[in-house]
Amino acid sequence: LTATAGHAELLDDFYRVFARNMRDLGTPVYARKFFANMLDSFPDSTRIITVKQGDQTVAAGFLSWHRQTLEVPWAASIRESRPLCPNNLLYWEAIRFAISRGAKQFDFGRSTPGEGTFLFKRQWGAMPVPLYWQYLLPDGGQPPDLSPKNPKYRLAVQLWQRLPLPLTNLLGPHIVR
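Predicted structure:
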């Protein structure tokens, strides 16, 4: 496995892996243009790291930073490549990059407690910090359960996972908006 850090020249590789992973999870993907706009709008505080096996990108992450904190808000890998642990190399390179930028904090990004990504990040020594969501609800209203594990979404998730990737890449950004 080899890792490369770059900018917009790695966007297509990042998006291919990210979009496929989101489809495999059963979740609509952001538009490629969303990430292109982030790179264009914040050229001095965004990067992409890709991990390749030969000439195929098998993992990728989008990095952003502000002041002394570097964050990886979006990262993904190809399911079939996971026995090779490409995410280990991806995060190792992201941490090295953060150190080279003088970062004092490394934010691994959000994860659901107890889930696979949470456990992966914890093995790096990440310390969980709760994120609180606020909802404006009518009196007595309950916050919505937007979890993909909500049985209400089970059929939609299963259907999405079976759709061809080009179709999910076309439809996903409209759903996410």
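Summary: The two ends are 35 Å apart (CA to CA).
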